[in-house]
Design goal:
The complex is a heterodimer of chains A (280) and B (187). Chain A has 280 residues and is of the alpha/beta class. Chain A contains 8 helices and 10 strands. Helix content of chain A is 40%, strand content 25%. Chain B has 6 helices and 7 strands, in the order E-H-E-H-E-H-E-H-E-H-E-E-H. Classes of the chains: A alpha/beta (280), B alpha/beta (187).
Chain lengths: 280, 187
């Protein structure tokens, strides 16, 4: 049994909130640069050049890549041999978000009630996802999620008879409906299986996976490749102004599901797909 | 194609020279507002009360910036999704606020109002907040301070890189640009 004080989590979350918002992951930068090299259209090339210049400025000057510094999605993989001491875990995470968003000059974008609104003023509460795993370490991932793209996400409960074609059509339909709104080029996270809620969680987790990785199952790895190609034939292009680059990546995560169902969730992200992890 | 430099205010005369797909570098005064600010302004207008700035030939930037770091004019400041302002945009144009800067699709009723009032919808690059902040030379909070990032600010911008998405005749780059690309592929 290893004891970890929750204050360590506060410090880690604070740091990750700031770093994730200032520095785009290398795999995302690389995907954008590769797409820029393939574009022909003047406007499309210009948009991608500006996007590259933007993340370079954020890196060099330590400023937020995008003004929507998101809701703080915090993923915790807690080793089952860890004993957390020193206070409430949720409070410790929220304190990390509070400090990160204040000290990092990040935008406070959270309202305290979905209908009656009212900004909480410190970007709390975080959206916390905990998982108990073997071992005595804690992996913390912070993925700030902007809502221009979150608002374009969809979920559907398919009948098994809809099969893979139903899912393929749904992915294209979701991207088509999103159009220019989620700041394309976008990243598409797809969750298939589980239950209604688990499918959505899988889709969000798919967005945290590096864009240069593949689903370990060759069937889904092929589907990732096929759907990315199909999305990039839609012609929406960077910012929706037309072009080859509508998406820079598509990741699929799956779970077993019920004999009667085939849930599918699609979580859309923008080209500022941010996430940063640390192991404690 | 080299970007054309234009200077605000956005008069009717200037608006009519702008066409969907034009790349422009905009200089002049603009005002920031998002959902909550638009709601308040439209409520004021409905009661016959004035809004915090003179809307005649004005341009509104749909943005909620990050807080300014010490020594900086403003934080990162890219556009937010314009569609959320669709409910308010025709009212704002009816009192003269002709220019809109944002990103994403607009409803047909907004485009109809643009044709009626010679409105122009400019696109700033969504997600390029660090780059766009460099064009903002001054920022002054003028109303709705309680709304935080959504407060109403008066900005002075220089050579802000924008693209005309929808012009005063209703031509739409989202349709034209995509069709041009698909035509070029299917040739």
């Amino acid at each position: 049994m290893r004891e970890v004080n929750v204050s360590v989590l506060t410090d880690t979350v604070e740091k990750l909130c700031i770093e994730a918002n200032y520095h785009l992951p290398e795999d995302v930068k690389c995907a954008i640069k590769n797409c820029r090299a393939c574009e022909d259209g003047e406007i499309a090339k210009g948009v991608l050049d500006n996007i590259i210049e933007n993340f370079d400025i954020a890196d060099a000057e330590n400023v937020p890549i995008c003004q929507d510094t998101g809701m703080a999605c915090v993923f915790l993989e807690i080793g089952q041999d860890v004993h957390l001491v020193g206070g409430d875990l949720t409070d410790a995470i929220n304190e990390g978000v509070r400090r990160g968003y204040t000290n990092g000059y990040l935008r406070k974008s959270v309202v305290k009630d979905p209908v009656r609104r009212g900004n909480t003023g410190d970007n709390t509460p975080a959206m916390i996802y905990t998982e108990i795993v073997p071992g005595e370490q804690i992996k913390v991932t912070v993925g700030p999620k902007g809502f221009g793209s979150e608002n374009m996400s969809q979920i559907r409960m398919f009948k098994p008879s809809h099969g893979i074609e139903g899912i393929k059509n749904f992915i294209l339909e979701a991207v088509e409906t999103a159009g220019p709104n989620p700041c394309p080029p976008m990243v598409v996270g797809v969750g298939i299986g589980g239950t209604f809620d688990k499918a959505a969680l899988l889709a969000k987790k798919a967005l945290m996976r590096p864009l240069d990785s593949q689903n370990p199952d060759p069937y889904y790895a092929d589907l990732e490749k096929e759907m990315l190609e199909k999305i990039n034939k839609l012609g929406i292009g960077p910012q929706g102004f037309g072009g080859k680059t509508t998406a820079i990546g598509l990741n699929i995560e799956t779970l077993p599901t019920h004999i009667a169902g085939m849930p599918c969730a699609i979580n859309i992200n923008c080209h500022v797909t941010r996430h940063k992890s640390e192991v404690i | 194609m080299a970007a054309r430099k234009i200077t605000l205010p956005l008069t009717e005369e200037l608006a009519k020279t702008l066409h969907a797909g034009d790349e422009v570098l905009v200089s002049g005064t603009i005002y920031t507002s998002r959902d909550a600010g638009h709601k308040r302004m439209c409520e004021s207008l409905a009661k016959g009360e004035p809004i915090p700035f003179d809307p005649k030939d004005a341009t509104i930037y749909y943005v909620g910036p990050t807080p300014a770091m010490p020594g900086k004019v403003i934080g990162s400041a890219g556009p937010t999704t314009s569609g959320r302002m669709d409910a308010y945009a025709p009212t704002m144009m009816s009192v003269g606020a002709r220019g809109m800067i944002g990103k994403g699709a607009r409803l047909p009723e907004v485009i109809d109002a643009m044709k009626k009032y010679s409105g122009v919808y400019f696109g700033a690059i969504g997600g390029a907040g660090a780059l766009l902040a460099k064009c903002i030379k001054s920022a002054e909070l003028i109303a709705f301070e309680d709304l935080g990032a959504e407060a109403l600010r008066k900005l002075y911008v220089e050579d802000m890189p924008l693209v005309v998405i929808i012009d005063s005749e209703g031509n739409n780059l989202y349709e034209i640009g995509r069709q041009n690309y698909l035509d070029s592929v299917n040739k």
